[in-house]
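Lab manual, section 2.4: Encoding a predicted structure.

Procedure: take the sequence of the chain (164 residues), apply the prediction step described in section 2.3, and record the output as structure tokens. A sample record is shown.
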Amino acid sequence: MALLQSCCCWHSLRKGSYASAVYTMAYFSLTLLITGVALHEDRQVLGGMENNTEPYNSSIIEVESTTTSTMVFNILVTSCSVLGLMSCTLLVYGIYSDTRQLLVPWIAVVVFASVVDVAHIVYLICLELRNFNPMTAIVFTLDFFLISFNIYSLLCVVSQYQEY
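Recorded output:
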């Protein structure tokens, strides 16, 4: 028995799974772009390639400095985004061809990306306990809704997997 019988805005799990693939493709593309730029800037700062005497930081969340932990999380998020984009194409083809095994990579990547995202948020919350920034609260709220939407998309695709 499937977890869901239909997806929210779509009448069938199949259409909802297609919508989940399109959403996660856009999500992973945007995440890849943002973390790719941040990773490039963090590499320059940590590598000492900047000629400025003032520390440079482009992050609106970690306002004090760039750390090695930040770079590790950016690498993890970038890796998840690349794998996510590849798994989205497998998801679309798997739904189109009714091959349930092709849904598994997408499910695994979205679960792993969500775990990494939650770990990153917990790390940032622990780091930001000292000083509160309203922009940080906005980013955390947005991330909460994105994680919720990822979980709903995951439920939709898992239900489609169970229907096969």
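Check your result against the sample. The chain has one domain: 13-46+60-163.
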